Amino acid sequence: MGVGITILVGTMTGTAEMVAQEVQTALEAAGHQATIRVMDGLDASVFQGGGNFLICTSTYGQGDVPDNAQSLFNSLEGEKPDLSGVTYGVIALGDRTYKDTFCHGGLRFDKLLTELGARRAGEMLTHDASSGTLPEEIAAQWIVPWAEQHLTSSSTEIA
Ligand SMILES: Cc1cc2nc3c(=O)[nH]c(=O)nc-3n(C[C@H](O)[C@H](O)[C@H](O)COP(=O)(O)O)c2cc1C
User: Fold this and answer.
1) How far apart are CA 63 and CA 98, in angstroms?
2) Domains of the chain, CATH where assigned
3) What is the pLDDT of residues 55-101, one digit of tens each?
């Protein structure tokens, strides 16, 4: 029986979206169901009803979330919804050149979601753009074991 996951994408130049697409392909090949939603214009209501989520986001500015993630982030901070029905993972893209703020976009989501009562499943996956590795390859190898180890079928399950 597969699990269902909604992948929320925060990106400036498209890397996180490409990662999300590879992750979706890997999940579906393993019999799971994944829906991609870029964060543009989303607000806290995307978490209504709970379920399994994967935050896939890069980092910009002084360790900020990307521009297209601001509305969702600000909505969560302002409305402070109870996210106790949410289980989530994080794929955080960054670059160690920015050593003080490495992957802080993903870290900021992680901190906020935990504060709102959501449960993080497993460890975050971080990727360093200076490492010489491709984030979509690393993520595609990581995602299925992560999902099968940490997620249970929820209301979004498929038979
Ligand atoms: C102007 C700029 C600022 C950045 N700031 C950070 C940062 O503070 N911390 C970090 O870890 N990475 C930072 N990065 C690296 C990006 O997060 C990384 O390259 C990521 O893979 C880009 O993904 P995207 O194409 O989905 O936006 C920055 C990149 C740029 C171009």
Assistant:
1) 8
2) 4-150 (3.40.50.360)
3) 999 999 999 999 999 999 999 999 999 999 999 999 999 999 999 99
Distance 56 CA to ligand 1 centre (A): 13
Q: Give the list of residues 6+ apart from residue 61 with CB closer than 8 angstroms, or none.
A: none
Query: What is the Cα–Cα distance from 141 to 159, expressed in whole angstroms?
Result: 24
Distance 159 CA to ligand 1 centre (A): 38
Residue 93 Cα to ligand 1 middle (Å): 7
* CB-based contacts of 121, cutoff 8 Å, min separation 6: 52, 87, 88, 89, 146, 150, 151
User: How far apart are the C-alpha atoms of 44 and 59, rounded to whole Å?
Assistant: 20
Asked if residues 43 and 84 have their Cβ atoms less than 8 Å apart, the reply is no
- Helices 135-150 and 15-29 meet at what angle, rounded to 10? 50
From residue 102, alpha-carbon distances to 44, 61, 62, 93, 105 in Å are: 25, 11, 10, 9, 8
DSSP 3-state of 125:
strand
Report field, pTM of the whole predicted structure over 0.90? yes
